[in-house]
Design brief:
The relative contact order is 0.17. This protein is an alpha/beta fold. It is globular, with a radius of gyration of 17 Å. The strands form 4 sheets. The protein has a 7-stranded mixed β-sheet with strand order 3-2-1-4-7-15-16, with helices on both faces. Bound molecules: ribulose-5-phosphate (5RP). The site of ribulose-5-phosphate has 17 residues, from helix 2 and helix 4. Ribulose-5-phosphate binds next to helix 2 and helix 4.
């Protein structure tokens, strides 16, 4: 299915997420095409008189938020984020996520875990029985010694690790780091893998979002489905 076909499902999920937005809130604003639908929809709320402030996870999102009339908090402020809303690349049955397809995973994770509630918006094709296989795991690494870091990731995961490129050059995150995409056949235990990866020096953050999502909103051909995570 093409991205154009899926954009209607992303949009319907984004519109449903508006129900969670109340006047005066501070919102965490994700990055990517689904987050974009949400931020543009927020513009209608602001135009109708709602006052919203936000924390942006990328320059692209900051531009969209500005156009929607959302006042952005400074990077150096303490952010009292009520609700963070973002897309994802894969979601497993326990609502664990792979994120970072757009390369914004570090800021996205900081914002998601800072929020009182984290809402994930996806089209139905992103729900998977297990993470990996159809989407490589993005890992943000510092450029110093990145080849050694990549080798260590390969040894741990027994998978192919590929430096992400853009226009023929290494892709740089907004924090100045690199992304290596890790092609794993299947991630059986995302929590254990995330913990093990964090022991490798040079890894800044992984695209595994474990126990972060509170609400999952899925756009499907049959309509929008909403799920609330239950945690012990
Ligand atoms: O993690 C992300 C960016 O780093 C995005 O949320 C993820 O890639 C999904 O993107 P899209 O909504 O465009 O399908």
């Amino acid at each position: 299915m093409s991205d154009t076909d899926l954009s209607a499902y992303k949009r319907s999920a984004a519109l449903t997420a508006l129900d969670y937005v109340k006047d005066g809130m501070v919102l965490g604003l994700g990055t990517g095409s689904t987050a974009k639908e949400f931020i543009m929809a927020l513009g209608t709320k602001v135009a109708a008189g709602m006052k919203l402030r936000g924390v942006s996870t990328s320059r692209e999102t900051a531009t969209l938020a500005d156009r929607s009339g959302i006042v952005l908090l400074d990077d150096n402020d303490h952010w009292p984020i009520d609700v963070a809303v973002d897309g994802a690349d894969q979601v497993d049955p326990s609502f664990n996520l792979i994120k970072g397809g757009g390369g914004a995973l570090l800021k996205e994770k900081i914002v998601a875990v800072s929020a009182k509630q984290f809402i994930v918006l996806i089209d139905y094709t992103k729900r998977v029985p297990f993470l990996g296989k159809t989407f490589p795991l993005p890992i943000e690494v510092i450029s110093f010694g990145w080849r050694n870091t990549a080798r260590a990731i390969e040894a741990l995961t027994r998978s192919r690790v590929v430096l992400r490129e853009q226009a023929g050059a290494p892709f740089r995150t907004e924090s100045g780091n690199l992304i290596v995409d890790t092609h794993m056949a299947r991630i059986d235990n995302p929590r254990e893998l995330d913990a093990a990866l964090h022991h490798i020096p040079g890894i800044v953050e992984t695209g595994l979002f474990i126990d972060c999502a509170d609400v999952l909103i899925v756009g499907t051909p049959q309509g929008v489905e909403t799920y609330h995570a239950t945690r012990p």
